[in-house]
Amino acid sequence: MKIIRFFLIVCMVHTCLPPAALASTNIMGANAQRYFDLPGQPLQTGLIEFALQANVTVIAEQGLIAQYRSGPVVGPSTIDNALRLLLAEAPLQFEYIESAAAYVIRPVAAQQGAGVEPIEIVIPSIDEILVVGSQYPFRYNTITNTQLHGAVPYFDSSRFLNVIPQSLIRDQQPQSLEDVLKFASAITPGDGISDSNDDVYLRGFQRHAMYLDGFRLGDSSGVRLLPAGIERVEILKGPSTIHYGQAEPGGIVNVIRKKPKAETFSQVQLIAGDMGRLGVSVDVNRPLLNTKKANYRVIFVDDQQQESGDILNIHRQLLSSSIAWQPSANTTVDVGFEYQKASQEWDRSFEVFTEFGNIFPHRSMADVAKQARPGFTAHFNLFSAEVNHYFNPNWQLQLKANLLQEYRYGIRTTTDSYLDDRVLLNTEGLGPDFALFILGSQTVLPLIVEQHDGLWHYGLGPIRSIYDQDDEELDSGFSAKLEGSFDTANLEHNLSLGVDWHTQNIAKRYVVERRDIALGQRWDAFEFEAAFAELAQTLFIEDRPLGELEEYAKELDYSDFGAFVQDSVALTDEWLVSAGARYIVTQADVNDITLNTATQLKTFKHLSTQAGVVYKPNHDHSIFANYSEALRANYILDDIGSQITEPELSNQYEVGLKSYWLGGDVQTSVAAYHINKWNVVDVQVVEGYRTALNGATYEVQGIDFDLSAQVSPKLNVLLAASVIDPSITDGSNTGNLPKMAAEQTSSVFTHYQLNSKLDFVAGYKFVSERYADDANTFRLEAYGTFDAGVSYTFQLNGLHAKCNLSVKNLSDVPYITAVDRGARVNESAGRTISASFQVTM
Q1: Buried b / exposed e across 771-787, counting CB within 10 Å, b at 16+?
Q2: Is Signal set as a keyword in this record (predicted)?
Q3: pLDDT for 659-709, tens place per residue?
Q4: Deepest in the core among 205, 336, 340, 659, taking most CB within 10 A?
Q5: What's the N-to-C CA distance of the chain in angstroms?
Q6: What distance in Å separates the CA atoms of residue 23 and residue 223, rounded to the nearest whole number?
Q7: For 528-582, how does the pLDDT look when each residue is reduced to its tens digit (9 = 90+)?
């Protein structure tokens, strides 16, 4: 039995109607146009998807619909006509009951002559019916049947796919995308360039980029995507070059933003929490110019927090505006603009010098290196446009265009910056023998070693510190995709083909402070100890004058072009095979603005392939297997960029099972896979110079498992687990584990609805030990965190109101989320408590 809203009202309806009344329609449904994306599938799941996309309630006897399949419904249609097409392959019809605002599915009535008395029609009792509304029949449907690439539903795809639905996002009360992804299998947090952007590891591999409505964001972004603007998240496990271009073999995360809806509402939420958290969000959806053909949506978020781990004065803002327009019955146009501002500071009070007698005092990072700005700020501007045109119910053309401009100001500590041969790690003039002391990854103190007359002498070279940094990034993307279905030789083909083009321009500027406090001076071992005590006072004096400033600027111009095709063929009702390929061309130029030089990097041309097979013994089980490939060009914006000659390549073999159990109350996905990745770049410092060693090989094999279950009408549960066996099989670290690869992860999330007003949630996430680097010199301990929350829904002066209380890391476990070896350790935030009040009008 599946129950959602409106049940008792609907099920108490008892009507006496003549036979002709069975064909009566909903007047609003007859006139309202919706865009449907429903493949042929089991009728029960088809009705669920229909109710979700049409935003209506449907009632049907489970025994009546269990043996039938739905007809496909693709493109614009009225609600009534779409439901007729959905029932076309079954001897069923529908009736709209206006008093209950619901559609009832019934058998086709026998033809009766005139003068026959009206027949009493009784809606079945609640124990016999399936009621579906604008939500899924249970709370967390992580395997949807919405079409994916060429009219193939997720359940019938040969790939492992997860969806984080809006219901789960809402229940989690997340503060970040990391929270949203927390309870999916095989996902662990990454560094995110000093915790300034969204970063995850999938199946042991760091993400190449985040995707926003299919548009690839740069991996050096300075903003985090705010949950208030997210509708759902799609996770595709494994290599994904066919449809997404360059990618890492672990998979991709595609964030789907909230879009305008064909309804009117306003929602305001106020948030307060410990560590100085204050926030407000506003979501407004309205018809545009009082027309039914266009709607607009505006989302505003302002979120502030004084402290989170070692990050201070966090301030994030979002302003998202979008318009959905239907200029004709077969065409939709969506345009939007999104602005984000993010700022934060890092705690620089950590110790870099321990007090040692009279030689030198205790000093923090703030004492050692001055900075032009107290923190980091990013401004993110994204324009997007999308056109969908349906030539007929079988064929659709989709055009997308995106333009992103981002400005970033302030220092984000990374190994790329302090190991750059011309920024901090500048060994010019130090001689053949020297030692470099890197302090907090922001200052380099060089010790010069020389031999005179058989005695060792020591000196201090130029001390270099990062004083300022700013970046500017301009990305653009365009794609055209044609999807459709056709038959050849009694075989149904679902075809997807298209082209896309992506460009990226990144300009980086570093300002380095150089101090020569002992230029040319040399001491023997005894003299140097005494001299250094005096030098330390000069080094760390609180109001010392600023040293000489040096500026270094570089620019990367990058572009890739791709053309892809994929065909899925239904051989029988049980067997489906698919094959696809992408041809990709990448090219890049590095411009050294300081030296006024330009270097053209190698152009890569590559053909990636993908193949899969699906066997469905019945409507509830889908056995799948696939082979897929991925490519990533090694274009790095620093002094080693021109040394890299080959792209990183990867492939995957995967087999798995997707299932519905207990009439659909339980959904499971399980997959076993083997991933190979070669031509991996290993950046090392060799004789004082940053060197790219191209040729390492990684191998990961593992098992992923996800379960979503409605245990009872009041209790929903999510379970996820992943076990991997990662290894470096070739290169300088052969036999070691890849950095940040967790061999075991698991999670559970539960939602319990005590009554119509009170809800409770609880979750647990476990991440096993990981190594901070490929050399396996630093190990991160395993950790587990508990989350909990409660919400209370009520009416306030006729408005829908809701109060939430959320606790993250309930047991206050200290742990490290990620490490950028030699540069930064990301500390956990500890226990955080937040409360919110939300009202919907």
Answers
A1: bbbbeeeeebeebebbb
A2: yes
A3: 988 877 888 999 999 999 998 877 666 665 566 666 789 999 999 999 999
A4: 205
A5: 32
A6: 53
A7: 877 877 777 777 777 788 899 999 998 989 999 999 999 999 999 899 999 999 9
- Cα–Cα distance for residue pair 420/550, rounded to 1 Å: 14
Ordered strands of the 251-257 beta sheet: 161-164, 230-237, 251-257, 211-212, 215-216
Largest CA distance in the chain: 125
pLDDT tens track for 10-65: 332 333 333 333 333 344 444 566 777 777 677 877 887 788 778 788 888 777 88
Handedness of CA 392, 393, 394, 399 (dihedral sign): positive
Q: Exposure of 623 by Cβ count < 10 A (0-12 exposed, 13-18 middle, 19+ buried)?
A: middle
Domains and CATH numbers, the chain: 7-137 (3.55.50.30), 152-256 (2.170.130.10), 257-418+468-513+537-840 (2.40.170.20)
| Phi and psi, residue 227, nearest 5° | -60, -25
What own/partner pairs with CB < 8 Å and gap ≥ 24 does 120-124 have? 120/16, 121/15, 121/16, 121/17, 121/95, 122/14, 123/10, 123/11, 123/13, 123/14, 123/15, 123/59, 124/61
Alpha-carbon distance of 461 to 437, in angstroms, equals 11
Place of tokens 């948030």: 271
| Rg (alpha carbons) of the chain, rounded to whole number | 30
Give 443's contacts (C-beta < 8 A, 6+ positions apart): 352, 365, 368, 369, 424, 463, 464, 465, 466
User: What pLDDT score was predicted for residue 135?
Assistant: 36
The span from the CA of 111 to the CA of 714, in Å, is 43
Per residue in 142-182, pLDDT tens? 655 444 544 567 777 888 888 898 889 999 999 999 999 99
CA distances to 15, 63, 103, 404, 753 from 6, rounded to whole Å, are 17, 21, 12, 43, 16
Phi, psi (rounded to 5 degrees) for 290: 55, 30
DSSP H or E segment with residue 193: helix 192-195
Three-state secondary structure string covering 686-698: ECCEEEEEEEEEE
Query: Which pair of structure tokens corresponds to residue 404?
Result: 């992103």
Taken in order 404, 408, 413, 418, the sign of the CA dihedral is positive
CB count in 10 Å sphere of residue 298: 15
Beta strands in 354-394 (DSSP E): 363-364, 376-392
